[in-house]
Amino acid sequence: QVQLVESGGGLVQPGGSLRLSCAASRSIFSFNAMGWYRQAAGQEREPVARILSSGATYYPDSVKGRFTISRDNAKNTVYLQMNSLKPEDTAVYYCNVVVRLSSSWGQGTQVTVSS
To answer: Are 29 and 52 spatial neighbours (Cβ–Cβ below 8 Å)?
Structure first.
């Protein structure tokens, strides 16, 4: 299994920015895909960013233009840069890694957008 630890969450005002980090216990160089998901209170978990081993990225319309996923292979870390945050972005954010048919999840980090 791959151990994942998220960090960088917290309280931010609307329009502000946060950068989330996900540190992996193994090299991420050969991973099939990495991504970020979020789950708001009373809602189902939904994807917000995905990056393939090729470097191709995916974003849903709800965050497109505001969120950016990136990775640093040397540090075994994937990042989620979040700009122009809105109250509806409030959720627990989870890091996910897929290698072959196996999927690993972090424990999540809380992001709260409020004035």
So the answer is: no
Backbone angles phi, psi at 12, to 5 degrees: -140, 150
Q: What confidence tens digit (pLDDT) does each residue in 12-57 have?
A: 999 999 999 999 998 887 888 999 999 999 999 999 999 998 889 9
What strand order describes the sheet that includes 77-82? 4-7, 18-24, 77-82, 67-72
Please give the single-letter amino acid code of residue 110.
Q
DSSP line for the chain: ---EEEE--EEE-TT--EEEEEEESS--TT-SEEEEEEE-TTS--EEEEEEETTS-EE--TTTTTTEEEEEEGGGTEEEEEE-S--GGG-EEEEEEEEETTEEEE---EEEEE--
Given a contact cutoff of 8 angstroms between Cβ atoms, the answer to whether 32 and 102 are in contact is no
pLDDT by residue (tens digit) across 51-79? 998 889 999 999 999 999 999 989 999 99
Please give the Cα distance from 44 to 52 (Å, whole number).
23
